[in-house]
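User
Class, as today's exercise, I want you to study this protein, comparing sequence with structure tokens, and judge whether sequence predicts the tokens.
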Amino acid sequence: MITGPTFEEMLHPNKIAPEIRLRALDAKKSNPLDPINLFNITWRGGDNHIHHVVLPPELTGVKAQIVVMYGKEFPSGSHKVGPAYSILLEKEMFGEVDPAVHRLVWPSTGNFGIGGAWVGGRMGCNSVVVLPEEMSQERFDRIEGYGAQIIKTIGSESNVKEIYDETWRLRQDPNTRIMNQFEEMSNYRFHYHVTGNTVVELVAELQDKGIGNGKAAAFVWAMGSAGTIAAGDRLKQAFPNCKIVGLEPVQCPTMYNNGYGAHEIQGIGDKHVTWVHNTFNMDALMCIDDEACLKGLQLLAEAKGRETLVKRYDADEELVEKLGDMFGVSGICHILGAIKTAKAYNFGADDVIVTAAADSLDRYHSIVARSQKEWGKLDEAAASARIEGVFHGVKTDWVQHATPNIRQRWHNLKYYTWVEQQGKTVQELDAQRDPAWWEKHQQMVADIDERLLAARQEATSAS
């Protein structure tokens, strides 16, 4: 059995045995398919620095400090590799998966499937990724490059029901195991412990540098699997006044008003409420236009867009250049959501709004090319219009503040997927109303780590 880091080692990689950490850091560039790279699943770099950027106010147009942790430095190029690893690790620890016997199926709209293909291959498993046929070509290329099989289902980002139907068919094989990010609480645990505590430590580090007041005023995330927004549960414990803000596409506002439809923000807005989403801890729901995200991505991806931000708006050139390849479409969505949050809550210069970028530009060159074909390449006038209209012009429409009744309505939407279609019981659904249900899953982090450390000790003794 091939394993990697504990939850605590993913949070604090300096706790990994020094020789293993050095080997992993070397392999990250020299041999990215080496299983030792499992020990690079962390928000921190080799210098123990958290991968993040504080966005320039010249871009955001608000006084609040908007901080983006970026996932492109994770193995596979996205932070979704973390929950993919955690799900497989826990299933191995509890004897549910035997790499020598079982085929793994990873239902996804992209990044989780890519992460599953990478993790499964590194941990000696045969993997199949199920995802919609209209996702970006770069996603399919990356999955195949990691040696996994692909099954394409009809539709695009919001066609998750079709993914579920296919995985339901596949699970009839007794040697198949479904690695369902939308259901598996190990997805929740990774983000509660690793992402959540990373944010807690990051805001303290920023305060030491004179940025913010040492607290997270808000955590903003657009739900795909709704794993990452679990960081909000940890932040509520550390900072009780922290606002947890969920995002959806205007074109598919499922939680906002039971809406439906197709959209272009790959990785979010999957037309259902996931099992791992604690809706009772969310303070607001905001909707973002997918066209604004595509136009915002094009602005930062094109040299003329970045140049205009520097020359016409006096943004720091080195910082702006760094932004050029840092974000994908959903990353722009998170930025726009953070700006909307700053305006909706009237946050000021001492307030820190934290979000993240799940992946980066390398998965969206084809999307940028399509945008250029549709809207043309940018000149200075067009770039200025994008800065003013897309970023500075964010409005506080499509904002739904939570009340007890609204939180309950969000939760009730789980019934249609999980009870009617996926075999959960009403009793299981009702159990999630109790905060203790979520706390139990948080507390399991220590147990999983103990099991992994014991397995390591057993392997060492055997050798």
Observations:
- The first strand starts at residue 52 and ends at 54.
- The CA atoms of residues 280 and 408 lie 7 Å apart.
